[in-house]
Amino acid sequence: MLGSFDAVLLARIQFAFTVSFHFLFPAFTIGLASFLAVLNAAWLWTKNRKYLDLFRYWVKIFALAFAMGVVSGIVMSYQFGTNWSVFSDKAGPVIGAPMAYEVLSAFFLEAGFLGIMLFGRDRVGPGLHMAATAMVAFGTFLSAFWILSVNSWMHTPAGFSIDPETQQFVPEDFWQIIFNPSFPYRLAHTVTAAYLTTAFIVGGVGAWHLLRRRRRGEKTSAATKQMFSMAMWMAAIVAPIQIFLGDMHGLNTLEHQPAKVMAMEGHYESHPEGAPLYLFGIPNDEEQRLDYAIGIPKLSSLILKHDLNAPLDGLDTIPDDEQPPVGIVFWSFRIMVALGFAMLGIGLWSLWARWRGGLFTMPWLHRAAVLMAPSGLIAVLAGWITTEVGRQPYTVYGLLRTVDSAAPLDAPAVGASLVAFIVIYFTVFGAGTFYILRLMSRPPADHEPSYKTTVDGPTRAAGITPAPEDPKAGE
Predict the structure, then answer these.
(1) What are the tens digits of pLDDT across the range 385-426?
(2) Which residues, listed in sequence order, are joined to residue 170 by a DSSP beta bridge?
(3) Which residue from 17, 58, 398, 434 lies 20 to 30 Å from 95 (Cα-Cα)?
(4) Can you tell me the distance from the alpha carbon of 429 to that of 69, in angstroms, rounded to the nearest whole number?
(5) What are the boundaries of the region Disordered (predicted)?
(6) Are 263 and 324 in contact (CB under 8 A)?
(7) Is 298 part of a structural domain of the chain?
């Protein structure tokens, strides 16, 4: 049955599936690591118990999410050799070093200090424990730095030459490779999205417990109120910054990948006297038109060119075999933008509630926050789909096509591994996610317990009990 499918399409689906699972965990842990660092610093500064309770509550969730992110990332990386060996051979001289730096400088930093952050508060002293927590937070950011640098180079390649004999990309300028034209915008936009993702998950958990305690007539803990308040401050402050960064990223994309923006906007035809902003429509690639289009005249030109009458080219200027799939890009972009403005709305609503003194007593705000808890995860997936599908039909934009990047594998081989990944991922990561949700369903206690030491002294292998001391030994 799998033999009737295209091997390249199956390889693309497999990579999209595994990277989508993986991306959810770093999108959460990047922001959560910084949140933990802030909580730990606030506890050391104020000695207010609620910050310590929140730290102990969320650090357990962080440990689980971090572990699942590591496991899913390892599986994903193997596909460069199995399904995309031609791409690895041609682009490896350029992207291999930054990916190695991500492991050596970022992942090792996170993993090295993670144990101290989890278990070292009462063993190494508050100063070193705070430093370890900060290093874990910095490591998550540094990891995002290197990975986004590699991915951005694939969109806006720079600092290289092409070997005429092997057709490999050869590095010429390391700094141009790392700081390629789209990298600063993508880094700022993605990391800010991670902070918003964490803020809305934390805010959703806090709102859930506010609603439950009110329904049961129970007193809400100071820690629950604090995490909801901090999350709403993040939403109110960071959401408008994220919209501004998204606009800057879009302008950069228009400069370097105009076909992607045309697909995002649904512009099949050029508009010499101002292009409309289409709010709704059904892309029709076969007929090269947007059916049932509903738009605002000339608004797209105002947003992209800051001029109502500025001309904008359409996909009619791009050869058919170089156009990205418009339908996926068009709708994923709208999902991302709609969620971004919904986040802004929650942030403004929380400011109004705070001004009225009802931040913790407005049930409709809390219901909306619970509903929006997964919005950051959905938005980052929609943004990733917009970015990556919009790059098609290339892996290295304008230089190496996706169809020429795949390994010479038959469809049944790729399809069989894809089915195995789907079954295993939903089983393993489904169980892990279920356990994280169970942890979130319990509110932070007034004296939240920390990890308990099960034995005195060094940790020993499971099932091995040290022999009792012989009083006659050494006689």
Answers:
(1) 999 998 989 999 988 898 888 888 888 888 888 888 888 888
(2) 161
(3) 17
(4) 10
(5) 446-475
(6) yes
(7) yes
Q: Whole-angstrom Cα distance, residue 31 to residue 28?
A: 6
Give the structural domain span for 317: 204-396
Q: What pLDDT does residue 475 have?
A: 41
- Of 165, 301, 189, nearest to 247 by C-alpha is 189
The whole-angstrom separation of Cα 230 and Cα 384 is 27
Does 131 map to a domain?
A: no
Count CB atoms within 10 A of the CB of residue 229: 16
Q: In degrees rounded to 5, what are phi and psi of residue 293?
A: -75, 135
Share of the chain above pLDDT 70, in %: 93
CA distance 243 to 257: 20
Q: Is residue 169 part of a domain?
A: no
Distance between CA atoms of 470 and 449, rounded to whole angstroms? 36
Asked if residues 36 and 59 have their Cβ atoms less than 8 Å apart, the reply is yes
Number of alpha carbons in the 13 Å side-chain half-sphere of residue 471: 0
pLDDT at 9: 85
pLDDT tens digits for 333-350? 999 999 999 999 999 999
How is residue 75 written in tokens? 């599986």
Phi and psi, residue 160, nearest 5°: -145, 170
3-state class of 296 per DSSP?
strand
Q: What is the pLDDT of residues 69-101, one digit of tens each?
A: 887 777 777 787 788 888 888 888 888 888 888
Residue 242 included in any domain: yes
Q: How many CB atoms lie within 10 A of CB 388?
A: 22
Are the CB atoms for 3 and 410 separated by under 8 Å? yes
Length of the chain: 475
Total structural domains in the chain? 1
Question: For the purposes of burial, counting CB atoms within 10 Å of the CB of 427, is it exposed (0-12), middle (13-18) or buried (19 or more)?
Answer: exposed
Structural contact between residues 15 and 31, judged by C-beta atoms closer than 8 angstroms: no
pTM: 0.87
Residue 165 to residue 153: CA distance in whole angstroms: 22
Coil/strand/helix, residue 276? coil
The DSSP line for 87-155 is HHHHHHHHHHHHHHHIIIIIIHHHHHHHHHHHH-HHHH-HHHHHHHHHHHHHHHHHHHHHHHHHHHHHH
Contact 190, 144 (CB under 8 A): yes
